[in-house]
Hints:
Elements: H1 8-22, H2 35-45, E1 65-72, H3 81-85, E2 97-104, H4 112-136, H5 150-187
Antiparallel strand pairs: 1-2
Amino acid sequence: MYPEGSRLYLIREAEKNFAKKAGIQPFKHCSHPRTGAAHTTLAVCGPSLKDSSKSNAGNQPPMEYVVDCTLGYPRGEVVDLGKAMLNEWPNNDTHVAVHYSIHKVKPEWNDEEKLKEWLYQRYEEKDRLLEQFYKTGSFGGRPRPVRFPISRSLQTQAFWMCTFYVHWHVWISPLIVFGWTSITAILF
């Protein structure tokens, strides 16, 4: 689930308008969640009110937890995905802080108003966490840096390059040749 709908720097004005229309205070560092998709996800995958060991979708086990992730970027400068892939980070700072909290899914979240209330509380907490992060550079608690070895990155890149190579020769190149020869046969 991604209840914000987008990254704040892209929808800051929409967040202000939404908060004004709803008669609530806008958040400073995140946007108010839109509950429709989250409610639909929980309505299908969440625990049934009749039997919490089953999902609303049938006999499958229900989704048990929601993992809440809050991302903190140095100085609040969010990099867009394309630039991150090209290793173009603001101020050449590739650090991103992630705060996790895990919440057990509750059957009462089938009620959209209760889910909305719970999500708004989480986002108030996120806004406070981000305020602290931008002041101190930390979410608090014990930091656990993640080291991503260059060897794993190289293996991943090699895998995707090989996959692309196979796809190119198996179907992309033949499709282009077929399309080109068909078009030239029609035109000439």
